[in-house]
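User: Glucan endo-1,3-beta-D-glucosidase. Structure?
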Amino acid sequence: MKNHINKIYTLLFSMAIMFYGCQEDDYSFGDIITPSNIQINAELVGADANNPNGDGSGEVKFTVTADNAVSYKFVHEGAEYVTLSGEQSIIFSKLGLNTYTITAVASGTAGVTSSKTIQVDVLATYSPPNDLTAKLYGFDPANPTATTSRTWRIKSSKPGHFGLGPVGGTTPVEWYGAGVDEKAGVGMYDDRFIFSSDGTFTHTTNGDIFGRDPFIVNDLGPNTAGSVNGADIENYAYGDYSETFQLTAPGGVETINLSGIGFIGYYTGGNHQYEIFDRSVPNELLLKTTDADATFDWWFIIEIE
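Assistant: Predicted structure:
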């Protein structure tokens, strides 16, 4: 009988330890506090006393802050723009003066969220020319509602298909230009970039991509399989994805604006805007973009597959 009672005490003591241990685990997560005091600022690019709704580019730079937030996202018509910093540029391309509803979502610990919605009046005056849309995604002015798309790739067979130069430079690959097939095997040449008439940008990665460290890690997550080569990460593991694109012409410069993490050729972070520097060569585009810390302009030659 005594042994039986001892077994019961032992069992109760073990359960108490287990309960106490569970309670300790609960406290290790810390307090879960819902983000509060959300503040949103919308800066319309080019806005002034004479142009209160922007310069016609349709670009708005949003900034959101909140107490106890660890990350943010903006939501517009089903599209989501995730940002750790709370800063995000969005292009609104519908012609004319239009009112848009934007929701900022602040995320706290354990996934708790708060949100705030604002409206902005934005003027867009740019309509891309038919020869550009025909080249980029096969637009046919005789059948303007048809769904069309074109697939592009890095033109590795041409010297200078990838390289860099000073920010604001006008000489392609001024400081470095890749030779023919120089970057074979790093996760760039097998990528395909599909532009569709519905505004969808699809990036087929074939499982890996090429990018700049630390921008690629900061934006896409830790490097799990890629090879670090100086400031580059080669064959960074990343699957296919889709974003959206807009064509604008700030200051008269034709520009491809990719949403979210959309990029072409080599991940540089930044604003994901690609200036069309030259489109005079048939089936070819020469593009450039500025990286996240405004150190270099990166140049790319892409061709229709």
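The two ends are 85 Å apart (CA to CA). The chain has two domains: 36-124, 130-304.
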